[in-house]
Amino acid sequence: MNRQTLAYIALAAATLGWSISPIFMRLLADGYDPYTQAFLRYAFAALILVVISLIGFRKGLMEAIRRPKSTLGLALLNTIMQTTWTISLYHTTATTAQLITKTQVLMVIAMSYFLYHEERAVITNPRYIVGTILGFLGVAGVLMDDPAHSMLPQMNLAALLLLFTSVCWSVYAVWGKHIVKDLHPVPMFTVVAVYSSMGFAVNMFLFGDVSTIASAGSNMLALAAFSAILPIAVAHAAYHYAQHKLGSAFCISVMLITPPLTNGLALLFWADESMNAIQWIGAGVLTLGSYFVIQAQRKAAAG
Fold it and tell me: How buried is residue 181: exposed, middle or buried, by Cβ count under 10 Å (0-12/13-18/19+)?
């Protein structure tokens, strides 16, 4: 299997992982406050990654540990980003959270254009531009949850937290691509996950309720552990690998398909995840835009 194919598989794994992540987080909200939930999920992810890195990436792990300026900075940003992301899901639906954070696409594209010259062939492709515009139109359509009263989304606490999360994520993605130029993404994110867990532990003891780890029960703890595998341990490392090979702008644009995936799965649990006709049309336009973006990237890679 060549590296290009592996990168596409990694991107697919990250896309699936981050599609189901907010569903797990809403389920865990019944047992934990946001600070405790964030700590548990990342602590389990860090444990899994440490074992994997010690077995298969020991040299890379040592290299990542010796790069605290890069990994500590990324971990601090990740801690802030994941905290606001988790809190927002206690105040809105999984689908809405996914959609609002898609504003990160424009920011990643802009930063990639100026920082990475090799991505300009994709970003300036007409299909890429049309696809990205369609993606934003699709997001706007899905946000019209009550078009009879307002054609604009409500700017509440959750929306503000999600917009802030989008800004953090944009920096996180582009910064992460820079770091994995000379660090393997698995041990790199292993160290980031360990540092992030420490930050979440501080948040939990300061603002959370540690007693819920016991009171929520073993089933909830098992769910927290399971939710750490694909959405965190696999998805982050896979995404860093994918964007290193395929480009930040392309990978973040493909993530436009996560809201429909999240919505389809979330409807199995919550009635408030349902969407009206305009929102479904928006989801279709968003998916079409993602297809155009993928076609633009393939053309640039072939050229």
Answer: exposed
